[in-house]
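Technical appendix A lists one of the benchmark inputs used to test multi-chain prediction within the project. The record comprises three sequence entries:
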Amino acid sequence: MNETSKRSPLVWVLYGAILVAGALAPMAFPAYTNQMAVLWLMIVFALTWDILGGQMGYNSLGNIFFFGAGMYVSAVIQIGLYHNVSEYTDAAGSGVYTFTETQYFTGIFLGMIGAAIFATISAFILGMVLFGLRGPYFAIGTLGVAIAAGELTGAWDWVGGGSGISMPTFPGHPDTGKYFFYTLMFALAVSVFVFLKWLYSTRFGHAINAIRDDEEKAEGMGIHTNRYKRLAWSFSAFFLGISGAIFGNMTGFIEPLEVAFPTITFGIFMVVMVLLGGKGTLWGPILGAIIFHAIKEVTWTYMLGWQWVALGFLIVVIVVYFQQGIMGWIMDKKPEWFGLTIAQLEAQGAAGDGPVSSDPAEGRVGT
Amino acid sequence: MSQIIGNINILIEAPVFNLSLLLDGLMIGAVFALSAYGLALVWGVMNVKNLAQGDFVIMGGYTAWVLAQNGIHPLFGVPVAFVLLWGIGWVIYVTVIRRVIDQDLFTSLLATFGLAIMFQQILNLFFGSDTQTADAGFPSIFLFDGQVSVPQVKLIAFVLAALLATAVILFMKRSRMGQAIRATAQDPRAARVLGINTDKVYAFTFSLNAAICGAAGALVAMIWVIQPFYGITYSIRAFVVVTAAGFGNLPGVIAAGLGMGVIEQFGGFILGATFQQALVVGLLLLVLIIRQIQQARVRQVVQ
Amino acid sequence: MNAPDARTQEAPAVRAEPPTAAGRQADSEPIITVRGVTKTFGGVVANHNISLDVARGQITGLIGPNGSGKTTLFNSIVGYHPIDAGSITFEGREISRMRVQQIARLGLLRTFQQTRIYGKMNCVDNMLISIPHRKATVLDMFARHSREQLERAERLLHFVGLYEKRFLRAGDLSFGQQKLLEFAMALMNEPTVLLLDEPTAGINPTLINGLIDRLKRANTELGITLLIIEHNMRVIMNMADTIYCLAHGELLASGTPEEIQNDQRVIDAYLGAH
């Protein structure tokens, strides 16, 4: 606790710099606005995945479900407010349907709220069903949910089935639109970070860490494990739902398998980015997301169709050879950079002086 | 909805049609049982949850298909796929599985998921994303005045699957290696102390699993369709079967595999082909929920 | 989620009785009653028709040769598995069908024979996460730990002699130290009854006296009723007010330490087991 107050000024300068850089980036590099918006999305993915995967020890392969669900809920709200959804999807966006500026922005605003609410509630309900499962069963069960969602949405004609929905177009210059969505993504990522930084400092953070370290013990100590688990997943889903709503509008066209519920792209990216950066830390997922996204953007087009093979290969390599992630690796190499470890070393020095019990006098009283 | 009711009506009005679906289901279920048995083997012996299981099946399928394209009868694909996948399984064991075997379970799950993505993309690059069938060219047998047709190739596939399963079971019971595998499954440390080379046992088990899946895949290519991205569905099917039966329960795995085939045939007929994948996943969730309720009754969780 | 909440809200009322006043009132109603409990694993009968009482405010010992079903009985009481027959009550409430968390929130806590702590957290965090959850509201989940809680945690770490190691990762402690930490965590949880599974096993013999003293103090000063499984006869005879002896899954004898020490059946059971 002392550490944070000690380095406060420096940290605030750093945060300020990131905020300013984030806000100004699209003006400095207007050609890359979309890529940078996706980078913030990746950071949201990584941070929200880490709530369960890193901090609570529940590895979900289906978090992408909340992203896609948010996307579709938002689309339905945005369209349904002013038009008949079924007719709209039948017409497959042939341009007959228009939205005024007010309608558009009201739609997006309400869509994001609806997406967040739906995702949160569905996480709570899914949690009731899936949190009785541990380890690999949980991973497979969540993967199943994501796959099922993609398949069922694809068969549901009311929301356009497999041919998807063309989202309302942004009223105004496309560049303004890009900046608008960039700002939304950026604000979302910052909110997630601030929220998690607070959350991990409360009893909640302690409790989900206890569940990760030994759930049976946590139950034995009377912790409301189910309550914590469902809430943790709901938080994750809340932000993922909003991110889905934003991303759907950003790309302009949504469809079940490749955009909304892409289990083997975004769905697995979440996991890989967190593992790459370091599970169970706050900065690890962010670092992982930045590095992963940068590598992907730079190399993708030169791979001539082999990029997906390379992705699979990358997953295997990270999982097999680099499990501790970048943060874990740094902690190994430079323990003195982390306040806790310094305290550990001091404590070890102190502990070296005597046997287990520090107060032998107390031990003698009993006899 | 009306279509679903219509389909159910067909089943009620034409009872022999049920028989046809049932036979189809059993014959396809035999293949599911094979790949599930392989999964149960690696799960039980090495505690590795292999999500690339289905991709082994699909690779075996493409082996048979490639042979058929080159004028060789796809039935030869069964032994060829067995040998080829044995080799692939061994390479994967040495490069990947050996290193994740003593880590936590999610590691093996994720590593094999990465492998699955890799395999399906490689297959996609080589063979394209069209669905393929290796035509074996056998006629069909007709029963009940032609109302029920049983393609000979399915019968042959069923018999081959049964033979393969029997061979593997006998091997596990009788052979020295089979005993070593079973000993390692019970207690790897004790096995090591008694002089069993567990690394070799693991390598053998994983290769055997890949080979069984490969042979099953060759059968799939003949009786059904294959496509690079169908692998994950087979993996999930294998998980459903093993989770429903429990991995120590061989007759259970076989029964659940056959049952899975039957349920899928009837479900696919009633709901329509669009729901094929959703049906498989739905079964997974159903099995997981049932297991949870069972475990909750003894104050436990599914782990 | 509703059902456990309803129960937990009643719990503070029970605890409102001054715990210290209850000490040594052997004649008051037993806090735990076990009646005719039977538990089998497959064909093996681990517990057969066992009945015993744990008196409020006392230290009750549970002894018996290896494999006599002591830990099974423990697990039955705290809810790790269902029992085949019989009834278990805690403060008059039937608990044999409740889940582990619900029972723990009632104030009936256990420690493990194979110690379980949260290995990746430091000792203070281990203590802080063990604060009683029976009173926790949803808002409390998002509160930070108060200064009093931190001080309490440090006081209890001092009590078990781990104060100097409070910032060490719990997983880096020795086995004996982890055991002490687990004991401190249990005290942090303010239980009414604490079930200890072989508290002295794996502890350096020179420290056992200190541990006995602390257990006794937990009983007298904090008013915690103790039920202890123990193999070390010197320890249990020194501490317990009442002792129950199990053998082959059945209750063999019960009584004061003196009665047990002189009971021919108990002596035979132990000699026979060797």
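The longest helix of chain A spans residues 101-130. The CA atoms of residues 3 and 339 of chain A lie 6 Å apart. Comparable benchmark entries are summarised in Table A2.
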